[in-house]
Amino acid sequence: MNDEHKEKIYYIQQQADELSAEISKLMKKDADLSEKHLNELIKLGVFISMTCQELLDEE
C-alpha cells in the first residue's frame, strides 16, 4: 500500500470517528435533531462509503 492509500484511509478513519461521535450524541439525545443536522450526517456517511468504494476500485 502506498502513501496515498494510507492518507486516504487515515482520512476515512477520521470521518468515521466524527460520524460515530455524532451518532452517539443522537443516542444520548444531546444532539440537534434538525433536518440540516441529519442531512449532514447522511452526507458524511455517503462520503465515507464513496471513498471506500474508490479505494476498492483502485485495487
Summary, kept brief:
With 59 residues, this protein is mainly alpha-helical.
Give a description of the structure:
- This protein has two helices and no strands.
- By secondary structure, it is mainly alpha-helical.
- It has one domain.
- The longest helix has 25 residues, at 3-27.
How are the SSEs placed, and which strands pair?
Layout: H1 3-27, H2 35-58
Radius of gyration: 14 Å
The major sheet is characterized as: none
Low-confidence segments = none
Silhouette: elongated
The counted number of beta strands is: 0
Number of helices: 2
> Quick check: average pLDDT?
80
Number of spatially distinct domains: 1
Beta-strand residue percentage: under 5%
Class from helix and strand fractions = mainly alpha
Helix share, percent: over 70%
Q: What distance lies between the first and last C-alpha atoms, to the nearest angstrom?
A: 10 Å
| Helix-strand string | HH
Give a quick set of tags describing it:
single chain, 59 residues, mainly alpha, 83% helix
